[in-house]
Design goal:
163 residues; six-stranded parallel sheet; two-stranded antiparallel ribbon; 17% helix; binds zinc ion
């Protein structure tokens, strides 16, 4: 079983990941090395609940850790390579992938797009300040870099009208 959960920031994807992880015995959580917002070895939801996670980018870094594990939760899938994801897809394990589908310019993240075509997916929505469902992540300030790690001080979920 492989499932992708995607959407903008603040759509409670990490909250879902953490709850599902806690409900799954013999599971492991993985996140990317790029995202060290909370320090290494953790995934923390916006409401402050945390679990242990492995920070990696290459499949070789987790090959040993996932041995014998039944379920794998991967956060921030947009930061991983397609090659990394393909290796996970080849495993006979339950895998939940979580990530952003679009950057702040509204362009698709290639790895998430690749997964959308390959496996079943569920879209999570956030809420815009106007109350409408939010499908986009807007950047307020910061640099023009596509990858810039930040929280609500830098990013905001918005609807089409408020992009
Ligand atoms: Zn709006």
């Amino acid at each position: 079983m492989k499932l992708l959960i995607y959407g903008p920031m603040f759509a409670k994807k990490s909250t879902h990941l953490i709850k599902s992880y806690k409900d799954s015995p013999n599971s492991i959580a993985i996140t990317n090395k790029i995202d060290m917002r909370y320090g290494a070895g953790k995934i923390i939801s916006h409401d402050g609940i945390e679990i242990d996670a492995i920070n990696c980018c290459e499949f070789s870094e987790i090959a040993e850790a996932i041995n014998g594990v039944e379920t794998i939760f991967v956060d921030e899938i947009q930061f991983f390579s397609q090659e990394f994801v393909e290796k996970l897809l080849a495993l006979d394990k339950k895998i939940f992938f979580y990530g952003l589908d679009k950057n702040f310019l509204g362009e698709s993240f290639p790895t998430t797009e690749f997964l959308q075509k390959r496996i079943e997916s569920v879209k999570f929505w956030a809420k815009c300040r106007c109350g409408m469902p939010a499908d986009f992540t807007k950047k307020n300030g910061g640099s023009n870099n596509i990858i810039e790690i930040g929280g609500s001080e830098l990013y905001e979920p918005v609807c089409k009208k408020h992009r």
